[in-house]
Amino acid sequence: MQIHEVIRNRRRTLGLTQEQMAHCLGVTAPAVNKWEKGITYPDITLLPSLARLLKTDLNTLLCFQENLTKDDIVVFLNEIVETAKKEKTAGVKQAFVQIQKKVMEYPAHAELLYQLATVLRGLLLMFPCENDVRAKCDSYIRELYGRVAEGDDLSYANRARYALASESIQKGEYQEAEALIAMLPDYDPLDKRGLLILLYMQQKKSQEASELLEKKLNASIQEVFLMLDQLATVAVWENDMKRAWELASYAGRLMEIYQWEYSACTVAMSVAIEAQDADKCLALLEKMLASLSRPCQMADSVLYAHSNKTGSGIESGAAILRVLLDSVKQDDKFAFLRERKEFRELIQQYENLPPKSP
Question: Does an H or E element contain 268, and which?
Fold first, then answer.
């Protein structure tokens, strides 16, 4: 809530008119009217008297909140995503403005800045936006991660360094990536979640134990999946196609637990692309596009039995579908497919396909 809203709401709650408040403070009624519209602000010397008249304190009047809770951050992140969804090209731009305003309000809040950078990066993947907006967002993401990386909150500083190192690797900035990686701690086998799980199991707190177990298992599955993907890619480089396809098969079976065919196909697609196997690429691409055009059922997986449900996933699937279509049309690694008639027909089929209702 902004200061002008606090003044208006408190005045109305107390049953005062603008004229009465103006008389008590020795100002004009039009001045109070401008305060309540946010056009101008009260003189700093009036603030103590104004707070007493409205029977509140200066912190409340000035909307001062020392810090944000995790719930506050989650609510704001959800607001940003909803803003980005509203319009085809302007949504991300509007969300970017919201993020900048929040950062100005809490410029040193490590968790907030890290989460905002991460969400903004996700929005750029999920939603279309103008090239100049994308460039500004990319620069701002790096700025936010940089602030956090240099801050005092070691936990989020390391996360930010990890994100920056990953981005540097993608851009071929290997020396910068090495410097950032050197600042990260070695692997720490101590994980407090394990102790919390044991504590909840001993107390037979099934909901709490299950939620943590599901989160930890999900993280482990994602880590194993990434390593299988990387091993399969290396196997192609080593010209060991039998091993590469076997690793892709293991990865596919692992991801079947999420009940989402798209994720089960991604490692096989990586192998097919590395091998320049057009026939397999086309077959896998058709499966992936078909999966993304249907409601996602990941929330029904046994791995989310105790976690918060996030809906059918239609919107996220549609967003990934757009990103995948843009990628196969523009990315150089798909160039060998673009001369194939089947490829062009497949892309055209899904180009303007709306998501199906569940």
Answer: helix 261-274
Cβ burial of 12 (10 Å; 0-12, 13-18, 19+) is exposed
3-class secondary structure, 34 = helix
Q: How far is it, in rounded angstroms, from Cα 243 to Cα 234? A: 10
- Looking at residue 232, its amino acid is A
**69-108 burial, b if ≥16 CB within 10 A, otherwise e?**
eeeebeebbeebbebbbeeeeebbbebbeebeebbeebee
pLDDT tens digit sequence for 279-318: 999 999 999 999 888 877 777 788 888 876 444 344 567 7
Mind listing the domains of the chain with CATH numbers?
3-61 (1.10.260.40), 70-183 (1.25.40), 206-351 (no CATH)
d(CA 9, CA 176): 52
Answer yes or no: are the C-beta atoms of 79 and 98 closer than 8 Å.
Answer: yes
